[in-house]
Amino acid sequence: MRRTSCLSGLFTRSTGQLAITLNHPSWACRSSSSAASSSTTESREPRGEPRGRPNLYEIFPQSLSYGPPPRGPFSIDLRQLRKEFLQLQQKSHPDRHPPESKHRAEAMSAHINEAYRTLQDPLLRAQYLLSLRGFDVACDETAKVDDPELLMEVLEAREEIEEADEEEQLLPLRETNSARIDASVRALEDAFGADDMAMAKEEAVKLRYWINIRESIAAWEKGKPVTLVH
């Protein structure tokens, strides 16, 4: 049985099963070569953002004036972020620009959308921050944590989802998994605050497991198997 080797798969609905699908932001999958070299050292030294790559934090100067960790915190005031996002979207709406500027306005609006989508989500935010340091966790489908206890928890969650006869039976698992997500987010706060990229990378992978389980619970249907694809 190849359970453990399949645990890096994502849970999403596809052709009657829950299978892997990847929809990466534009900032992802650009640093695979630097990730390989960086992962050998797991450096804790702060490094600047790669030249030519936009800093998503700079798009929201009011909400995120402190910048990314370790200068600023990992946590974000989501209400303030959304307020500024809506203001920026209103200003950049193509209908508010002359015809010759519409294409640029559309590109700016799309960029603002992606920045907001990335930063308001703890997993995407962590993956983005790691990508700035050369760790391409978002696109590394083989990224995993060598923790037998964690892997067993993931397997047991999968089996519990598959064996449920009613959605109500998954309520305890939903609550337990929600607590796991909260714990991972707190651990990411600590890791980025300490500029510990090794810990941040490990916690980002853990959080991906818990997010996948949450999505599997939300997509549950009786008789629909949970398939882990690696």
First-last Cα distance: 14 Å
- Biggest sheet details: 2 strands, antiparallel
Beta-strand content: under 5%
- In terms of per-residue confidence, which ranges show pLDDT below 50 for 5 or more consecutive residues? 1-22, 31-52
Q: How do the helices and strands follow one another from N- to C-terminus?
A: EEHHHHHHH
Q: Using DSSP, what is the number of strands?
A: 2
State the strand order across the main sheet: 1-2
Structural class: mainly alpha
What's the pLDDT, averaged over the residues? 79
> How much is the radius of gyration in Å?
19 Å
Helix content: 40-55%
Number of continuous helical runs: 7
Which geometry do the CA atoms define?
globular
Helix and strand arrangement:
Elements (H helix, E strand, L loop, with lengths): L11 E3 L2 E3 L12 H8 L38 H15 L9 H18 L2 H11 L15 H16 L7 H23 L3 H22 L12
Antiparallel strand pairs: 1-2
Helix pairs in contact: 2-3, 4-7, 5-7, 6-7
